[in-house]
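Priority: medium. Attachment 1 of 2:
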């Protein structure tokens, strides 16, 4: 079985991979939270592509935190045998408000 490292470029689909991301939430109630995330392994879709599921908590800030559960968008090839996913979701409502989290995760091997 071939091993794929973080700097290896792969054509096609890599069945066992995940993505990480580091982002900030939107501002709400005059503060933001940092969101550090690692996705599930890929979930294949009917069109032959894949998405990822994620859930967790944003970093504790301003006396509280928020929970989230979300799915990514489909794979977006970014060249050199790598791909990313776009995400756009809202956190739970806590302390009378919620936050939006949008962005693109870190590249992973496979161009689809």
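Attachment 2 of 2:
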């Amino acid at each position: 079985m071939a091993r794929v490292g973080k700097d290896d470029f792969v054509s096609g689909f890599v069945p066992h991979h995940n993505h990480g991301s580091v982002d900030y939430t939107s501002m709400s109630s005059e503060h933001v939270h940092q969101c550090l995330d690692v996705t599930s392994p890929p979930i294949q879709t009917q069109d032959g592509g894949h998405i990822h599921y994620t859930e967790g908590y944003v970093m504790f800030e301003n006396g509280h935190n928020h929970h989230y559960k979300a799915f990514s968008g489909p794979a977006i090839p970014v060249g050199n045998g790598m791909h990313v996913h776009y995400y756009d979701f809202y956190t739970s409502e806590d302390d009378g408000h919620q936050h939006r989290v949008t962005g693109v995760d870190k590249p992973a091997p496979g161009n689809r």
